[in-house]
Amino acid sequence: MAIHFNHLQPIDRLKYFIERQLVKGAGYQLFVIVACIAMVSIAGGLLIAPINFDGHAIGEDVWWAFLRLTDPGYLGDDQGAWRRVVSTLLTICGYVLFMGTLVAIMTRWLIAFMEKLEQGLTPVSVKQHLVVLGDTSRTVPIIHELLGNEDNRNYFKKLNKDKDLSIILLAETVNAIIHQQLLAELNMPLKLSKRLVLRSGKSIQLDALHRAACTQATAIILPSQFQRSDSPVTSDVETIKSLLSLNVLAESSGLHPRVVVELDDARHAKLARKSYQGGLSTVATDETISRLIAQCAVVPSLLKVYSHLITSSKGAQFYFKSAEPFVGMAINHIKQLHSAATLIGFIDPQTEHFALSVGDTAQHKLKQADVLVFVAQNFQQIEKILPSNKLDKVQSAVQKTTSKVSVKKSHKRLLLLGWNRRVPAIIAELDSYVKERFEVTIVSSLATEIREAEIAKLGPFSERTTIEHKAADYMVEADVKQLNPDNYDIVLLLYSDRLDSTEEADARVLVGSMVLNEVLANTQQQPHVLIELSDPSNESFLDQSGWDTFITPLIMSHILSQTALMPQSQVLFDSLMKAGGIQIRLRQLEHYSDKEMLKVDQLKLLAERQGELLIGMVKQDLSGDQVILNLENGTRVSQLANDQIIVIGNEAGIA
After folding, report:
1. pTM attached to this predicted model
2. Domain positions in the chain
3. N or C, which terminus of the chain has less Cβ within 10 Å?
């Protein structure tokens, strides 16, 4: 059957021409409507011209038609049948063309213009601000840590010549709804929320980076995103591409702002440093979380201490201060001058080394580049300095001691439920504790061959660590019962990164925790349980469990924000979390004395004789363990109340 096509008729060509004009935008649409109004006005003037016997020019008739077209109020003024017919037709056309189409086009144009402004496509005109590249699970905690904490804002002002802290968030999609949702999650006062500006774009796009004024920023935070472990393109690939784009923009402007970047894999740190020629701080998620999990597995209740020190909203935290006003003075002298805060040591920025202020280090003469490290409740405490005439009186109480207490080796059984790409790093970190022996049982539905191959990539472990693989699902109660979790000292429940989203990953962990709780409910021996989640919004589900809960995005957000605000904090966290170096420990009072109760000032001296610094205590009450940092000298520590002493000391003997 033959198909015949007719040639385009003139009316079709006209319709095509009008269509092409209308799709060009509001300006062309207005032009078409104005042309239609002009033609209808001319036509109306020509229709009324033959009955005008008063000698009006054609222009007057066209104007008459235009008035009827634009204003229906003239309809009742006309006399004569033909004049009224034409006037009625013009009024109807006016409703369609002028009051309908013209107003609709202008309204749509105004709405489109406002939506375009809401998308954040206009470059910002600010300087000395912080930029967060990407809207991820880390975004809200980072902004809340920096903008929602008064001490952090004051610290930023001190470092930036009284410049108020402003944050530019570069998100892939920006509109009014997303902006309001973000402000609702932050729950900050209006005055502070105005300092948060959203810009649209990706961190790999040069124009988007320019839009956020990255080269004018004090620091740039580049957090990582959730990515499946079996994905061919990891989040580190996009991160390094973003660093390359930042470097191109920085080279073109001659300004290289400091960048704090989160990497999933620590092995990509060298490549990241090659990608950006400016100041770069790399924080590796696998290395940081594996070290923290290993430490908290060795020392129960340590996570509560870290949550206070890392999270500024929970009380005392680490603060940093330039040693320039105290050049040539000994650390011991500076410690006594700052009676309101606890001076734990100093950082040498050139060597990136943290030294604890005990023993020989306490006599170190400060240099101009040194940075003092404090534990304090707020920024004002490290600014408060005693008068110099009281120094000699207090100094006499300081003693130099180098005694060391031997640590007995212990054997622990660890049940590891679940699998993600950090498991090999966790086991490697546990193996680096030479005073500990670990018998690790890994339970997962992932094939044993794949698990063994991933663990083998980190090399052979010492004889202190043995690994056994089992295939089971921790969401099935029967499988968990067969594992006998009460026979283990530590149970570690990890989320899976082989699922599509953090919601699915955490849903499995939450169900698994309920199954584990059911199995352990009637057992006499309770293991130390640690749980890792991937979504900060699920933190409240395990608040009442009494188990240690690692919210990986929250931990990484706090470290990233603190590193952006205080670059020295990365050196400190690396030193404290690494096995075999300076670490935080929990002690009983009997470790230092056979007395049942001691004051903090007495306990400080006993701890320093063993090469440790006392920074706080964990006090047990009806509501649970209460962490108190930066204790006053008159505070009493009781053995009968089972108070635990928080100290920082050197752990000798890394493998």
Report:
1. 0.80
2. 10-118, 130-278, 410-558
3. N
